[in-house]
Design a protein that fits this description.
The chain is built from six helices and no strands. It is mainly α.
């Protein structure tokens, strides 16, 4: 199901900017939402840590921080800080996670 169909199924009204932002960033059921993807990433990293494929270090903290910031940020807070700033913050957190994973894998070689 595409984003347009998902939106219409969820919100039976006309398009509302706040609903679109919430769907794209925070929806737990929409496979293309940022929260959905971060949640999947969290599960995979947890499995890698449990099977000793990846060292724990502070990965769980970084992913938990990102997941929480997306999940618990209100639409009012997003609008207050600005959508671009919110996106920039998410990108920085993802970059930190990526750097941390790269450091773990590069140190094992």
């Amino acid at each position: 199901m595409g984003g347009y169909q998902f939106y219409l199924k969820t919100h039976k009204s006309t398009f509302n900017q706040d609903h679109v932002i919430t769907m794209v960033f925070q929806d737990k059921l929409f496979p293309r939402s940022v929260y959905y993807c971060v949640n999947k990433l969290s599960r995979h990293i947890t499995r890698l840590i449990e099977t000793n494929e990846l060292e724990k270090k502070n990965l769980e903290f970084l992913i938990g921080k990102l997941e929480s910031s997306i999940k618990y940020t209100t639409i009012e807070n997003i609008n207050e800080q600005g959508l671009n700033n919110f996106i920039h913050s998410i990108k920085e957190d993802i970059s930190n996670i990526s750097t941390n994973i790269n450091a773990v894998y590069n140190s094992n070689n």
